[in-house]
Amino acid sequence: MRTENATGDAPRLYQAVLNHLQTSLWNDIRNARTLAWMVTGLLLSQRSSLAAWLPHIHSRATFAQSTERRFRRWLENPAIDCGGIYGPLVTRALRGWGEHTLILALDTSVLFEKFCLIRVSVLFRGRAVPLVSRVLEHSSAQVSTAQLLPVLAEAKGMLDFLGLHEVRLLADRGFCDTALMAWLRHCGWHYRIRIKSSLILAAPDGQRLCKVNEVRLSPRETRCFHNVTLTGRHFGPIHVALGRPSDGPEQWQVVSDEATSIETFAEYGERFQIEEGFLDEKSGLFRLEDSRLRDAASLERLILVVAVATLLLVSEGIEVVQRGDRRVVDPHWQRGLSYLKIGLRAVQYALSRGRAVFTRLTLYGGSDPEPLSGRKRPPPAPQRTLEVGWKLVFRPPS
């Protein structure tokens, strides 16, 4: 049995993190070292609390208060550019993505009933890897398109730099705005966005078809409207899929720039991976709610610490699966843990045996070689499908 104190692993973990951070843009390399120690403290404590990190930090400071003050100064430093630090990391990880479609999720999350986190994430094998994060002092999860577009533009700049143009954005109905759809069309990005029941569908010539909530579906029925316009502004042409997955009253309503079908719901359903990512951050793996920070700029830099840790752990989990070593750290016969948690267990396993960690930083495109076992898919299976375009087509149950 190993008797060495876990803090003995901290210097090796710190150096492995620092090796990746040194490729980012720094006005002072000491800021890179501070961030490396913060990520190390977060990974070893699994808490977003400065005090929880202190036992794992090795420095020349005599008192714990000095180290905590150093971290606070870093979090409050306006010269720390989150995009300049994280952008080079995540773009380096995506260099091996290839020609595969990149799926992005746009969502918001309220922190401490006072701040709103806007997040664009790469959906990857059951989890969401942060791409761009922004924190606003805003007590609602509902934000304007004007507040969203700078975040999306930053994400677009990263992907254009990599030559990744086959992009699909997924978003909930809080982001159903024709100005956002027009921006996505201008970028050449595809989208699947849930729409509100009050929206009006019309033919391209302006003839009103119906309100979304006027369409009554039977359980497990799907209806598709092709080449129609949306709202009184007649934005389009767009395509809409409506589906009722069960006997309950809930109805799924998704707008797309591409022709819709039953598969549209499966494509939109991938969006829920970002909610699992928020859960990992807020009350799960990293316990962001333990933070005592209460200003937007400091919280955004703390979320940078969490994003770096997430990216490194997911990459480590990928490497474990690629080597065929998953069952060394995952007790399930088939993959039962997320890549994030596989990565965390792999780091703990490697540190306890004096092995190297974070040797590569890669997110591979393409299908998952070991899909998560027991994963649920949200789309309904229709008994019949009604497609509405220029012609009304009824397909009876098979």
Topology:
Elements: H1 10-21, H2 29-45, H3 50-53, H4 64-76, H5 82-93, E1 102-111, E2 115-124, E3 127-137, H6 145-162, E4 167-171, H7 178-187, E5 190-194, E6 200-202, E7 208-211, E8 221-230, E9 235-244, E10 252-256, H8 263-269, H9 272-282, H10 296-322, H11 326-329, H12 339-352, E11 385-388, E12 392-395
Parallel strand pairs: 1-4, 4-5, 8-11
Antiparallel strand pairs: 1-2, 2-3, 5-10, 6-7, 6-8, 8-9, 9-10, 11-12
Question: What does the model show?
Answer:
37% of the residues lie in helices and 20% in strands. The protein has 398 residues and is an alpha+beta fold. The chain is globular. It has helices at 10-21, 29-45, 50-53, 64-76, 82-93, 145-162, 178-187, 263-269, 272-282, 296-322, 326-329, 339-352, and strands at 102-111, 115-124, 127-137, 167-171, 190-194, 200-202, 208-211, 221-230, 235-244, 252-256, 385-388, 392-395. Helix 4 (64-76) packs across helix 10 (296-322). The termini are far apart.
Summarize the helix and strand pattern as letters.
HHHHHEEEHEHEEEEEEHHHHHEE
H/I helix tally: 12
Q: Output the structural class.
A: alpha+beta
What's the mean pLDDT score?
Answer: 88
Residue fraction in strands = 15-25%
**What's the helical proportion of residues?**
25-40%
Low-confidence stretches: 1-7, 376-384, 388-398
